[in-house]
Amino acid sequence: MTFEPFRTLTSRTLVLPEENIDTDQIIPARFLTTTDKNGLGEAAFHDWRYGPDGVLDEGHILNSTDTGSHQVLVAGDNFGCGSSREHAPWALLAYGLRAVISTSIADIFRSNSLKNGLLPVVVSPEVHKDLLEQPGREVTIDLDAEELRFGNHVVPFSTEPFARRCLLEGNDPLGVLLNAMPEIEAFEEGRAA
Amino acid sequence: MTGTLFEKVWDRNLVRPEQSDSPAILHIGLHLVHEVTSPQAFQVLKERGLKVRRPDLTLATLDHSVPTLRAGADGRLPYVTAQAEKQVETLRANAREAGIELLDLGDERRGIVHLVGPELGRTQPGLTIVCGDSHTSTHGAFGALAFGIGTTEVGHVLATQCLFQSKPKTMRVFFDGPVTPGVTAKDMALAVIAKLGMEGGTGYVLEYQGEAVRALSMEGRMTLCNLSIEAGARAGMVAPDETTFDYLRGRPGVPDDFDAAVADWHALRSDDDATFDAEIVIDAGAITPMVTFGVSPDEAGGIGGSVPAPANDSQAAGLRYMGVTAGQNLSSMKVDRVFVGSCTNGRIEDLRAAAAILRGRKVADGVTALIVPGSEGVKRQAEAEGLHEVFLAAGAEWREPGCSMCIAMNGDKGAPGEVVVSTSNRNFRGRQGEGVRTVLASPATAAASAVAGFVADPRDYVGAAA
Ligand code: SF4
Q1: Considering the entire predicted model, what is its pTM?
Q2: Which entry of B156, B204, B318, B460 is 20 to 30 Å from A64 by CA?
Q3: ipTM of this predicted complex?
């Protein structure tokens, strides 16, 4: 199995300036009883997009933005903190996002995102401020060159080399791990001895 | 070679060190599985024709979606939705097919995933332990390297018993001196998070050291390590000592030659000259019972203090959500509901602490109190000690084991706008029900707050009721 490679993405930004957007905001726990990965787009930011009465808040930016042309989320500091639920990147991808930009992105969320083709991009506070102030601007994320480009800016970012290679080539890390089986077995035998 | 506790455990479980084009491969000693983050992983294995490689190193339990209410007159458990029940059945089917031991409903060993590993003696010093759950850091209390993973990685471990891991950095968290009476592990943990901030630990494994840590029981150490993730850390660890060995001795899952194991485990401590990538020192004597006032766990303060002025718009919005204003005393927040339970504070010692305050007292009018043991074992022990009678006499509810209101996905939740004093780990918006305002605190503080009807200092309630 391979997944869709991620090389270069040019799209507009959707800005959510709130800090510490946790995974309970990204997908509330009551949607976690699913046994499937699909169909979570409706659950993405559900309680931000719908009132307590279940009525869609049409004025909310998450409801009024065309997701086809706005695939890059620019979010406040420390995005994705909280639980390890991989349902969070699944929901964001199903909602239509392909990349998240912030000044810091929580550990497990970051790792989960990379495994699903949602690219986390960490930028400096200055660049971040620029992006927060101009929602909807067009940006290009070039994973091969590890560059974020917008206007006259060329901003380098870094991605774990292995995850980057898997994304660029559409390689599945499980396949690579399975190839290491002789080493894994030798390790286990050595320990049993 | 000298090293830290983390490095020693890492090295013991390293199949292949990091290479220029791939992260290290780490062998996993114990893989804990629950119903919420596993179905999609089993599905991937099926699609690829792969088998669960080491069912013997895998242990499954049911905790997140299960009701804490007893079965109705028709004998059926009151699942919140049909989908929740299907999730439970899916894990049953997957475990059966793969030959994985499942602690099913009705099994006297069942409980929250982070309680059952230690109770069965499966959680041991020097092991690598993972689970599709961020509070896996709990098991670090035994000197294990334990961290949460996502569902894709659950699949990797099921299929290979290994994980790609980039090596984290190490941080020493040193508690200087002893804590004062009435201060618990939960208060110590909230003090660490308040100091580090929600992302201060990102990329690190924390090692807790100092007299106040040594003085903690295993229950307390588990509470401390459990909350490491709330500072963004990948894991938290405490070096094993006699307290650890005494806890484990005689439990079913420990090595046959226990004394030989103990001799080996003695080596699992940071050497005196080991270097850490970062270090913080906390004055243990200055810690008082802690409560949160905002919508992230680092927005916490000593109970005698007041709500600080917000530093930015996000914090201001959080305070508005909580219905508090800067300058307000932390102990003036009115309480609607109290929850004692979860993998943070659902162990026997936690229930004893709550019972000590509730004994001979009543939950205030208008307050609902829910006491949920973390496991069947905890429930049995609490009932043997008569704690359930204390809770019931005080007007609290005594439920069946599970995650319950910690994540509020089984139907146990608060109503919009309610203030809930909770012994769990996250005060995020809506975590305990849409619009619910959560105040995190220790079991003693939660119990005192239930009696007072507002956030209360447990030190005012020590000793028997008047
Ligand atoms: S009690 Fe809460 S934090 Fe612990 S495993 Fe259950 S849901 Fe997760």
Answers
A1: 0.94
A2: B318
A3: 0.90
